[in-house]
Amino acid sequence: MLNAHEQQQLRLIARGLEADDPALAQSLSGRRTPKRSVHWASVVLAMLAVVLAVLTVVTEVLPLFLLACVAAIAAAWAGCLTS
């Protein structure tokens, strides 16, 4: 546990960091704002994958299934870029 003087020094350092680099101070504080943005490319690719998979079942054209797999992998990859 820090004594009173050390706590005061730590608060002064934290204030100085917040003034100099607010983004760094926020990332170090552990108080993160949740990301609510949706990467629309991943949503569109996922929808395309589902449509292609359904078309594969309906038309029995197997190359559509390959395209559905590629679209699903691309959707997962695009989703990973946002997290």
How are the elements arranged and paired?
Blueprint: H1 4-20, H2 22-29, H3 40-59, H4 62-82
Helix pairs in contact: 1-2, 3-4
Structural class: mainly alpha
Instruction: Report the major sheet.
Output: none
In terms of per-residue confidence, which ranges show pLDDT below 50 for 5 or more consecutive residues? none
The H-and-E topology, N to C, reads as: HHHH
Indicate the mean pLDDT.
84
Shape: rod-shaped
Tell how many strands the DSSP assignment holds: 0
- Give the radius of gyration: 24 Å
Helix count from the secondary structure assignment: 4
Amino-to-carboxy terminus distance = 35 Å
Total tally of structural domains = 2
Helix content: over 70%
Which percent range describes the beta-strand content? under 5%
Describe the structure.
The chain is mainly α. It has 2 domains: 1-33; 35-83. 80% of the residues lie in helices and 0% in strands. The protein contains 4 helices and no strands. It has helices at residues 4-20, 22-29, 40-59, 62-82. α1 (4-20) crosses α2 and α3 packs antiparallel against α4. The longest helix is centred in the last third of the chain and has 21 residues, at 62-82. The model has no long low-confidence stretch (mean pLDDT 84).
